[in-house]
Amino acid sequence: MSQSPISRRAALKGAAAAAGAVFFAPMVNRGRYRLFARVPTDYSERAVRLVTESLVIDMLSPLTINNDLQQRWVQNAENFTEEHYRLFLDSGIDVFHIAVGIGGLDAFASTLQFVAFHNGLMAGRDEYFMRVDSAGDFARAKDSRKIGVLIGLQNSDHFRRLDDIDLFHALGQRVSQLTYNSRNRIGNGSTERVDGGLSDFGVAVVERMNEVGMAVDVSHSGDRTTLDAFEVSKKPVLITHSNVRKLVGGHPRAKADEAIRAVGQSGGVMGISGVRNFVTLQEPTTIEHLLDHYDYVRDMIGVEHLGVGSDIDLQGYDDLPADQYQQLKAGYKDSYAFRDKIDIDEVAHPKRMFDLTEGLIRRGYTDDHIRGILGANFARVLSEIWRVPPRQTQPGR
Questions:
Q1: Average pLDDT estimate for 375-395
Q2: At what angle do helices 287-301 and 257-266 cross, to 10 degrees?
């Protein structure tokens, strides 16, 4: 793979200036295509075809992690421009699960603001966006060439009582991670000192999420809370964005084999994260180390339980303004073991799905396997989770 000294932000500008990206990409040599006019990386015809023809879902990718850009979009939806839209469209990603971690005493109000902002942005720019609420919306998002937005949260602190689950479901939330890294009223996070399981309230939360058709996510949850969720849930449980603990020296944010096996037994899907310190202890860290996680999960529970949960926005972390970058790193415990860089260069840019697909091709995955990983597996399991029979409200719950 070509290594270019050009920064990702310069690449973005070059991509926006280039005509049409994928669909008008110049052929560099027979069967190879260049998708960025100013970046000398080219992709095989097979990889381009698989990404452009498949439903592509990134099960953890906020619209932006840049606070300054987000504030501009908050102030006025029209600040989300045609140029921004083209970057999303040309990424090949059809649906973005935009979950972030919100907790603490103001979690309910802060989560309302988060959901209201995204609903407002989608309403103000409905020519660019559509919210994914149901199984049929996956195909509609791809066919319409709109940016599909799947509203989720990386914490469930905003569920003060069980009826709040119904409220946020009505507002569009379709996925909720039970805990972030710390303990809440539901259970324990992955970096909490004590590995406790689900509380009584947490059991009731999982049951109510099953009832309303909201997916249970345990990506950041502690080991006991993770396994409890699989035991309690009558629907498949998701790990939207994590990694294999055995491949990264026991990192607490990665998942133990027991949890990975539980994904397969529940019929769930595990999305693989591209965060550098979750992938390997080695340097340099490359896409090959990331692909090792895909192979490990495939070999343990089957390729039908694999997906993508990049855990970055289109640009990645390492190009954030310096103050935001340092603030982000300071917000986590030492056990996160951040290094100088957070991203893996080969998959930390808007065309990362093409690089991932090339890597899966190198590893011998079939076209059907790759289509499943790129999105069909998550679409299948979410369709099952969201499909619920009508229920009668139970007084007092």
A1: 84
A2: 60
- The CA angle 197-201-202, to the nearest 5 degrees, is 45
3-state secondary structure string, 335-387?
A: HHCCCCCCCCHHHCCCCHHHHHHHHHHHCCCCHHHHHHHHHHHHHHHHHHHHC
Going by the DSSP 8-state scheme, the letter that residue 57 receives in this structure is E
Other beta carbons less than 10 A from residue 2's beta carbon: 8
CA atoms within 13 A on the CB side of 4: 15
- Enumerate the β-bridge partners of residue 33: 27, 43
**Rounded to whole angstroms, what are the CA distances from 372 to 57, 106, 315, 367?**
10, 38, 24, 9
Cα 40 to Cα 396: distance, rounded to the nearest angstrom: 62
Residue at token pair 């890294």: 181
Cite the beta strand spans of 231-333 per DSSP E. 239-242, 270-272, 306-308
**Cis (ω within 30 of 0) for the bond into 284?**
yes
Could you tell me the CA-to-CA distances from 374 to 224, 294, 367, 368, 380 in Å, in that order? 29, 12, 10, 10, 12
- Could you give the C-alpha distances from 351 to 48, 65, 240, 355, in angstroms and in order? 10, 17, 20, 7
Q: CB atoms < 10 A from the CB of 145, how many?
A: 10
Q: Report the distance separating Cα 58 and Cα 272, nearest Å.
A: 10
Q: Report the pLDDT averaged over residues 141-162.
A: 97
Q: Which residue has the tokens 């720019």?
A: 125
Q: Give the tokens for residue 318.
A: 């390492």
Q: Does the reported pTM lie above 0.85?
A: yes
Neighbours of 214 (CB within 10 A): 25
In the CATH hierarchy, which top-level class contains the domain 55-386? Answer: alpha beta
pLDDT of 53-88, one tens digit each? Answer: 999 999 999 999 999 999 999 999 999 999 999 999
Q: Is 283 helix (H, G, I), strand (E, B) or coil?
A: coil
The answer to whether residues 223 and 198 touch, using CB atoms and an 8 Å cutoff, is no
- 51/178 Cα distance (integer angstroms): 31
Q: List Cα–Cα distances, 254 to 9, 211, 278, in angstroms.
A: 29, 29, 6
Rg (CA), the chain: 20
